[in-house]
Design a protein that fits this description.
This protein is α/β, with parallel strands linked by helices. Helix content is 35%, strand content 17%. Helix 1 packs across helix 8.
């Protein structure tokens, strides 16, 4: 699906579909981006939306380490805790890249929000010391992190597993990389915006509907 920024309207789930999704039992695993956390605006927005509908127990947002292997282990620990119950992932930025890795490994589905399609291409920009946006701690990013990310990249993606939510105004990542990487997948491309994907709140019910679909 594709939309432009001039289109104010978007498809809402039908009342019958809303009743179905509000009784769903699918876990939603939110994966935040680099230097972000479960306290990010999008994570809190989705958590609140689900809690308001009696689905708060199905929302999960682990704090992911900056080191890629540790982050992947943290995600897999959450998945194992689901004990074979259905789940989807919502991954933002680098979290979108990690969601792709896990979706292919665990035969899962994912909503990708302005994802880092090829993070290893940006190694020179990020190797070094950074200040975490939420905790204030100093984060050291090593070049080998990007080698790990490249090695973990799936050889191909399964189009039916993904919904790409992206916008042309992303000032951090080139939206065209995501469109290319996830060609053939469901895509919503909006004009304008920025890397935070400020339109996220407009898609909360649609994300729940995506979660309620059978994979």
């Amino acid at each position: 699906m594709q939309a432009s920024g001039v289109e104010a309207a978007f498809r809402m789930p039908s009342p019958r579909r809303l009743c179905m999704l509000y009784s769903m039992n699918t876990h939603i695993l939110y994966l935040h981006g680099f230097l972000s956390s479960p306290a990010s605006e999008k994570a809190m927005m989705l958590a609140g939306h689900m809690a308001d509908r009696g689905l708060g127990h199905l929302f999960h947002a682990p704090l992911l380490p900056s080191e890629p292997l540790a982050a992947m282990l943290a995600i897999e620990a959450e998945i194992i805790d689901f004990e074979f119950e259905p789940f989807i992932m919502v991954g933002s930025s680098l979290g979108g890249y990690l969601a792709q890795i896990m979706a292919e490994k665990w035969n899962a589905r994912a909503v990708l929000v302005n994802p880092a399609a090829y993070p290893y291409r940006h190694a020179d920009e990020y190797v070094g010391i950074h200040t975490h946006h939420h905790t204030g701690e100093q984060v050291v990013v090593r070049r080998e992190y990007f080698d790990i990310l490249r090695q973990a990249e799936p050889a191909r993606v399964t189009p039916s597993r993904y919904w790409l939510l992206t916008c042309t105004g992303d000032e951090v990542l080139d939206y065209r990389d995501g469109v290319e990487r996830f060609a053939g997948c469901r895509q919503t491309l909006l004009d304008g915006g920025d890397h935070s994907f400020p339109q996220f709140g407009d898609y909360l019910d649609q994300i729940l509907a995506f979660a309620a679909e059978e994979g």
